[in-house]
Amino acid sequence: MKRFAHIFMALIMAFTANTVFAADVKIGFIDGNKIIAKYEPQIDAKLQDEFKAPQEKIVALQKKLMEESDKFKKDSAVMSEADLNTLKSSFEKNQAEFQRLSADYNQKRTARGNDELNKLLDNVKAVTKTVASKAGYTIVLQRGAALYVDNEASDITDEVMKQLSYK
Q1: Cα separation, 122 vs 134, whole angstroms
Q2: 58: which of 74, 98, 137, 157 is 20 to 30 A away, CA to CA?
Q3: How buried is 117 (Cβ within 10 angstroms: 0-12 exposed, 13-18 middle, 19+ buried)?
């Protein structure tokens, strides 16, 4: 009886699979790398403007550290013990501040870069959905997800890029 049930289920699955695959499925693809390559300079410029002040502060502090280091190398032999200790203390304080500011800057800039990239990807998804539904695509894949693509006409990247707006 169990054997009969297994055979019956196998037959049903075989017929169902043929019916599903017989349906007209139109598959397209999109090249996400091409889109990111186009918009990456805009994202970088936006972040450069947004993080200009913190970056300038870090550069100024780095310059101060270099000056203190050079002064220590050049004048340490002739400096008094008190002046030497003051310079070392200042250098250590500035170095700790530099490391803190650099870490904070990198963390915030990376987070903002990810936010901007997610904003772009949300736009890409929305435009892709519009383009795909107008063209009658059932499925749209990322270009790298497909091992083989037979028809270049199924690439909708350029159409998506025409309609995409990122600011």
Answers
A1: 19
A2: 74
A3: middle
